[in-house]
Amino acid sequence: MNLFNLIRIAYKALQRNKLRAFLTMLGIIIGVASVIAMVAIGQGSKQSIHDQLSSMGSNMITVLPSSNLNGGVRIAGSSFQTLTQKDITALQKAQYITELSPSITSKGQAINGALNWPTSIQGVSPDYLDIRKLSLKDGISFTEQDILTSAKVCLIGQTVIDNLFPGGENPIGKVIRFNKIPFQIIGILNPKGQNAFGQDQDDILIAPYTTIQKRILATIYYQNIYASAASEQVTDAAVSEMTQILRDSHRLRDTEDNDFTVRTQAELINTLSSTSGLLTVLLTVIAGISLVIGGIGIMNIMYVSVTERTREIGLRMSIGARGKDIMLQFLMEAILISITGGIIGVILGIVSSNLVTLTLSWPTIVSQSSVLLSFVVCAITGIFFGYYPAQKAARLDPIEALRYE
Amino acid sequence: MSKKILDIRELKREFQMGSETVRALKGISFDVEAGEFVTIMGSSGSGKTTLLNILGCLDKPSIGDYFLDGVDVKKLSRDELAQLRNRKIGFVFQAYNLLPRTSALENVELPLLYNKDISVAERRDRAIHALEAVKLAERLDHTPSQLSGGQQQRVAIARALVNEPVMILADEATGNLDSRTSYEIMSLMQELNSQQGKTIVFVTHEPDIASFSSRTIQLRDGRIQKDTQNTNQRSAKEVLAGLPITDDY
């Protein structure tokens, strides 16, 4: 008996009892639809957490000078001066890094006429805005040319504006002084609010790093190097690449510890993702249980069906169906029920996910893998729970089955 | 010399019922040649049903030989027996055993579904031909519930014919029918036997029905009591014509 005949026989048999077939399917439909909807909600919330983190720069990698032994005394990293232009030049060749910026910060007093405000000024390269996902509300950023000329220009954060320009006048083009050095304001940063540690991210001035190095601090060292990995996935590769480049650049021997530290945002992301991942697993398990119950429903109905159709089985055997043919027929009926239920469930799951997004405006993502997985699980459910009833049918004795009342 | 369809030698069948051995058939030998119309008669407990099951390849003899169209049934496995039933035997049951909510055509196609050598088109063709042979060409799409008892039995006969078996094996095929319909079925059987040369083995307990066959084998207590050629074979068609026409028909 070929597959087409088999499907035809099973389909005809199901068609004789449509309502029952549908009710049996219902368990699977609900199971699959809930698996897909739950996973979609779980994935959606995971993605939205991820997006929020990305807005802070999820690819961001920070290099800090590290503590090191100096004649047996461990010295705090911040007072250590190891990062120089030579490191920047070396890091520019790294393949997993797309953006790179040194950073040097000075604290001081910003003055506009009679008003003044204690703040800090950060010297960076133009890449920095991209790395930290900073954007300009107004004006323009400084350029490589400004870096070369150590131009006295700056970008200004909202908190500083509020304190130096309380009247609401446009600060662009205005000149303020920072530690007696005049800076022309060329751009205004979009407010970012507080970071996770409660620091005001808007209380800042940003200027070319060469300006800070040469005109304010008179140093050749950097306090930090910021970089951004090509993508979140290659962050780890970027970290090890950068570590190696910096070790080479610092001429460290194999036995020596790093005199710098490379950090990423990955740890934070992992923690948050695992929380929402746990939620997804939990929801999926609950939905999976309903799928199993749907499967038991199939088994139950198939057993009833085998008993009820004993004479039919006897007849089929008497006209030449082998035990195998009967077995495959009932198995195919179970699979048809579960797969049809699976298809309807997938559609229902996608529709209800979209409904959730529309009505509750929760983000949902219907992932292909969850659709594929629940479909495969359905087919397996059909085979697994259809097997025993089918085997029972196949083992019937045709003589007794024909006489069954 | 015509061909032996059934060749049964010293056939015995015993069942184990707890500690007791029930000997249902105690040594039976007979042949049936192609084109014969044999009735097997016997009261209940005579071994009739056991013999039928063995003839239908649903069961195997404990001792003795059974050749169906030259095939030694004893040597076959369960699956091979199923295949043999599919190719060589057409069953007609007392209770018709049609699939409910399934059209006559699909009911007749059923045996061919288990024969993978037959294409969809051929299956349909043969089923239509078989239904034409039992004069139900007009009712291909009717389900059993839309057919009378006699029509249902004719669908069952078409189902038995469709795989072109060497033998039609009928088990009390008129048992559920009134006498007029029974005669109609017997008339159809006689027609198949005489015009198409079908070999028919008909199990019944009604002597009236047996009188339409060409030969009667009488069983009693697991043995053949009598095996007689019916010299005075009645024609069911004539009997039918002789029946008074009643109002309700």
Rg estimate of chain A, integer Å? 34 Å
Work out the helix count of chain A: 13
SSE ordering of chain B: EEEHEEHEHHHEHEHEEH
Question: Which geometry of chain A do the CA atoms define?
Answer: elongated
Q: Which stretches of chain B are low in confidence, meaning pLDDT under 50 for 5 or more residues running?
A: none
Short structural description:
The complex is a heterodimer of chains A (405) and B (249). With 405 residues, chain A is α+β, with helices and mostly antiparallel strands.
Q: Secondary-structure blueprint of this entry?
A:
The complex is a heterodimer of chains A (405) and B (249).
Chain A: H1 3-15, H2 18-54, E1 60-65, E2 68-70, E3 73-75, H3 85-91, E4 97-112, E5 115-124, H4 128-131, E6 136-139, H5 144-148, E7 153-156, H6 158-164, E8 175-178, E9 181-189, E10 205-208, H7 209-217, E11 224-229, H8 235-249, E12 260-264, H9 266-308, H10 310-318, H11 323-360, H12 368-394, H13 398-403
Helix pairs in contact in A: 1-11, 2-9, 2-11, 2-12, 3-8, 9-11, 9-12, 11-12
Chain B: E1 4-17, E2 20-33, E3 37-41, H1 48-55, E4 63-68, E5 71-72, H2 78-88, E6 89-92, H3 104-113, H4 120-133, H5 149-161, E7 167-171, H6 179-196, E8 199-204, H7 207-210, E9 215-220, E10 223-229, H8 236-242
Helix pairs in contact in B: 3-4, 3-5, 4-5, 5-6, 6-8
